[in-house]
From TrEMBL:
Upper lineage: Bacteria, Pseudomonadati, Pseudomonadota, Betaproteobacteria, Neisseriales
Highest taxon of the lineage: Bacteria
Main location: cytoplasm
Protein name: Pyrroline-5-carboxylate reductase
PANTHER family, alphabetized: PYRROLINE-5-CARBOXYLATE REDUCTASE, PYRROLINE-5-CARBOXYLATE REDUCTASE 3
Amino acid sequence: MTLYFLGGGNMAAAIIAGLRRAAYPHAVAVAERCADKRARLHAQFGVQTLESLPPQLHGDDVLVLAVKPQDMAEACAGVDTGGALVLSIAAGLPVSALSQMLGGTRRIVRIMPNTPAAVASGVSGLYAAEGASAHDRERADAVMRSCGECVWLDTEEQMHAITAVSGSGPAYVFYLLNALQQAAQTLGFSPEHAKMLSLATFRGAVDLAAQSSDDFAVLQQQVTSKGGTTHAALASLRRDDVAQAVTRAAHAAAHRSREMAQTAP
Ligand SMILES: NC(=O)C1=CN([C@@H]2O[C@H](COP(=O)(O)OP(=O)(O)OC[C@H]3O[C@@H](n4cnc5c(N)ncnc54)[C@H](O)[C@@H]3O)[C@@H](O)[C@H]2O)C=CC1
Ligand SMILES: O=C(O)[C@@H]1CCC=N1
């Protein structure tokens, strides 16, 4: 069995890094049209790289569709899956559209991973089409478990929500990290110290939250002295409606995912 990737960009590289760290036992090959990226993937991970997929895959192979949604129809044209299991990580593209692009195959699992897969700290939402067997689900789970946690979804509709929360989510965290770094610089720290302080604060808070049985709101209270500094900062965040802004951002992502599904070929 070979695990093929169609597209070797950011997300494919993150998954391959996770697979390598977890010593994934099967051969991995990447079809990537850009020669520079092929060379980088081969040098970094030792995977086989190809300009395009072989003329026909084997029934035991697994094909990961990892091109941008708008490139998917063109990339899939002429691909003969040979009955292989297809895993699509593309945002928005429904099983029905993917099946149509791949000559009617129903053996499809949709996956919404995230880039922390690269350090085995990812979380993936998975949804199995009706044509995928229990064994297919296990194989998809085995690929993504090597990159972090897996959450199986009951309906395809839930893919929009998981895309908005954990698929796009790392970008929200990097946005906030960057904002705290910028704030630290305006308070007089060098860029290096500002980066270290922001990162250590996020990491420490996440580690604490992960190891605590308290809700996030209780942990927040434990930092906040009456009339103190945190109280002043939180009052400012509330005035700026930051919690609502985060909700609006996640809903914008889910809305965009639905739009992409509606306009899929
Ligand atoms: N970047 C992220 O955080 C996440 C991305 N995704 C999904 O992953 C997919 C890929 O996204 P990225 O890796 O960010 O994009 P990317 O642009 O970094 O990678 C796509 C790669 O596909 C290659 N490609 C395009 N057409 C091709 C073809 N016909 N044959 C071979 N290679 C071809 C491109 O050269 C490029 O390297 C998208 O569908 C996206 O929705 C899902 C979850 C998270
Ligand atoms: O921005 C996107 O469309 C992709 C899907 C989730 C993260 N990146």
